[in-house]
Amino acid sequence: MAAVVSMLISLNMLEMGLSNEDNGVLTLGEYQRAAMGTCLPESENFAYMMLNLVAELGELSGKVAKRIRKGRALVDGNELLPELDEVWEDWAEFESGLRSEAGDVLWQLSGLCSVLGWDLEEVARENLAKLADRRERGKIDGEGDRR
């Protein structure tokens, strides 16, 4: 299954003029360009991208919340785990659904960055630089953007 998905991704990337033949790694910039190639014109605006990003995050968290509410999952420490009587195939399907929702969140974030004129890869680099600076100054824990 993973090989089929990888092949489909490669074909879609080639159709959109992208290639990662060198090392098989998909950069965030390549992802952003390919993802926005699937965007409907009426969706290419700040309001849609911002509001639907929140909606997609809600779908992702909602799947987890409902699973916990129904007693089919639990959080132990920092791990999301199936309940003991959970059928493995059902859990694998659940995880697949979570990955799909995480992909939708990534698409929406990519779209939001695009309509704002931002490169997703540069946003990621800036974030890592900010976090490294905070770590060096002992300010990872705390509140506010300017700590």
Can you describe what's shown?
The chain has 147 residues and is mainly α. It contains 5 helices and 2 strands, in the order H-H-H-E-E-H-H. The protein has helices at 2-15, 28-36, 46-69, 88-115, 120-136; strands at 73-76, 79-82. It has a two-stranded antiparallel sheet with strand order 1-2. Strand 1 and strand 2 (79-82) form a beta hairpin. Helix 2 (28-36) packs across helix 4 (88-115) and helix 3 runs antiparallel to helix 4. The chain is globular and about 50 Å long.
Which features does this protein show?
single chain; 147 residues; mainly alpha; Helix Hairpins; two-stranded antiparallel sheet; 2 strands
Q: Major sheet, described briefly?
A: 2 strands, antiparallel
CATH homologous superfamily grouping: MazG-like
What is the CATH topology descriptor?
A: Helix Hairpins
- Strand percent estimate: 5-15%
Number of helices: 5
Strand count? 2
CATH architecture: Orthogonal Bundle
Query: What's the N-to-C terminus distance?
Result: 45 Å
Shape descriptor: globular
In CATH, what is the class?
Mainly Alpha
Question: N-to-C SSE series?
Answer: HHHEEHH
Percent range of helical residues? 55-70%
User: How many domains make up the coordinates?
Assistant: 1
Mean pLDDT: 88
Rg for CA atoms? 19 Å
Unreliable stretches (pLDDT < 50, length at least 5) are 4-8
User: What strand line-up does the widest sheet have?
Assistant: 1-2
